[in-house]
Design brief:
Helix content is 44%, strand content 25%. With 106 residues, it is an alpha+beta fold. The protein has a four-stranded antiparallel beta sheet.
């Protein structure tokens, strides 16, 4: 995923809230505005990062329930980083995004 796509995530994060989070799996609730803001290419870019043996294992979006479920390797990608990324503190979210980008680029 390109740096521009990751920066777009910063703008889109305001449309989601953490509904449930256990290490290795996070469920995000989203507003309908998120779906309209996401282009198919961005969704494809997110899906391309997912591999069963990778850091991001899977991503599923359910527009009927307004949720996104990300499954990830909690030993590689710190659950705290995801909590910060989708939290209310913009500075902590930006720092988390930078660290997540470094993990994903390995």
């Amino acid at each position: 995923m390109a740096a521009d796509d990751l920066q777009s995530l910063m703008a889109l994060r305001r449309f989601v809230t953490v509904a449930h989070h256990i290490p290795g799996r996070i469920r995000l609730s989203f507003t309908n505005r998120l779906v309209s803001a996401l282009s198919q290419s961005r969704l494809a870019a997110l899906q391309s990062l997912c591999h069963p043996e990778g850091c991001l294992k899977s991503c599923s979006i359910n527009t009927a329930t307004g949720s996104v479920v990300l499954e990830y390797c909690a030993s590689t990608l710190s659950p705290t980083l995801l909590t910060h990324l989708f939290g209310h503190d913009d500075q902590a979210a930006q720092q988390a995004l930078t660290q997540i980008q470094a993990v994903l680029s390995q």
